[in-house]
Amino acid sequence: MELKHKRYVERIEQLIAEGEALAQSEQPTKTPCIKTIQDHTKLNAWLIKVDNIIETTFGQNSIQFKRKEELFKGKTYYATQVRAIVGLLTGALDDLKNGFLVHQEFLIAGEIFNSVLEQAEYFLGKEHKDVAAILARIVVEERLKGMAKQAGCLEDSQKRKPASELNGCLKKKGHYQEPQRSQIQAWLAIGNSAAHGKFDEYDPEKVRNMLEGIEHFLTLTNNSFGEEA
Questions:
Q1: Domain boundaries in the chain?
Q2: What is the pLDDT along the chain (229 residues), one digit of tens a residue?
Q3: CA-atom Rg of the chain in angstroms
Q4: pTM passes above 0.85
Q5: How far is CA 19 from each of CA 23, 47, 67, rounded to the nearest angstrom?
Q6: Looking at the chain, which runs of residues are DSSP E strands?
Q7: Angle at 53 between CA 47 and CA 54, to 5 degrees
Q8: How is domain 102-228 classified at the architecture level of CATH?
């Protein structure tokens, strides 16, 4: 994640520099006080790259994307419009550098986790409860790691810290109460049993309840924990 973050930062910095250079290449038009960008080829290439980085980095539901859509309306050949887009990129870069995209990262992770849960449901439907339980446990562990990192329960040097400890720390810091902590421990126990071949310690119904509970847990953490962090 950190390497990807660095690439996004560098890409936006590059596009800001390109945009500033384009704006400086403005030429007068027949209309007084109005200047335009003469090299439409470079301008269009830049706009495509800006469009791509904003959607890739921030998503279509972000404020950055919606503002980009507004700025891209009509012909963006005027230097004032290019400078406005550079301003958007500059603000987006500041948010990215200062870590103000926590909630969005949770939403993106949630989409990935939901796809894994769909796979788990598929295997459960095919009577492969053990595979489903293992997949579900992976989702729980990764969600706990993400939350724990934001809550200060997990440092980069502690990537192998047990999920049960992360769960306890999150409860202690008030991100959820004892019932939720106990439920998560139960999910982890089922996943552990599946991973260690103790398949008789749980049945398909427990796995089904596990999947439903995890889906609800993801929704709660997407809508609340990301905003709090």
A1: 2-97, 102-228
A2: 455 567 888 899 999 999 999 988 877 666 666 667 878 889 889 999 999 888 877 777 778 888 898 888 876 677 888 889 999 999 988 877 776 554 455 444 545 566 778 888 888 898 999 989 998 998 898 889 888 887 888 775 555 788 999 999 999 988 889 999 999 999 999 999 998 999 999 999 999 999 999 988 888 877 555 444 3
A3: 23
A4: no
A5: 6, 9, 17
A6: 26-28, 35-37
A7: 90
A8: Up-down Bundle (1.20)
